[in-house]
Task: structure prediction
Amino acid sequence: MSSDGVSAPELPSSQLPELSIGGVAGTTSDPNYQPTIRGKVDRFGVAMGTGRRKTSVARVRVKEGSGVFTVNGRPLEDYLRVERDRDSVMVPIRVVGKVDQVDVSVRVQGGGITGQTGAIILGVARALQGMNPNWHHDLANAGLLTRDDRMVERKKYGFKKARRSFQFSKR
Result:
């Protein structure tokens, strides 16, 4: 019974509305939802995307081809020596099922190997999204369209590094 003396009608649990906290990633309640497409296609049919990670910037061009992957004019195997990095760069292409069907050309600068790898992944995913917007949900559900915005914390005055202070000397 409520505070005003009127009792609420009893409903079976099958008819009660389902309580949910947040939604499933990639689903929206609006049927007219249009995702933001960050990749672009030029007049020659080449899809372009820009990826950033830490201080690295990668400009990626993807076109239909035979699976050639070049980074700064060098083959992928020569530029990225660690197998984990090479595999992670290929993930967006595997997600959309275009392995050995697209040529990828990357110009990357700044940062280190990890930052450049992350920038290339985001750039390839955005270029593929621009090539075919229907791949947006597959790429987004794999977490490939999210920019990792973590940056190095700045060094503070009176400290050795960002948080590390100098060793304390009692005497």
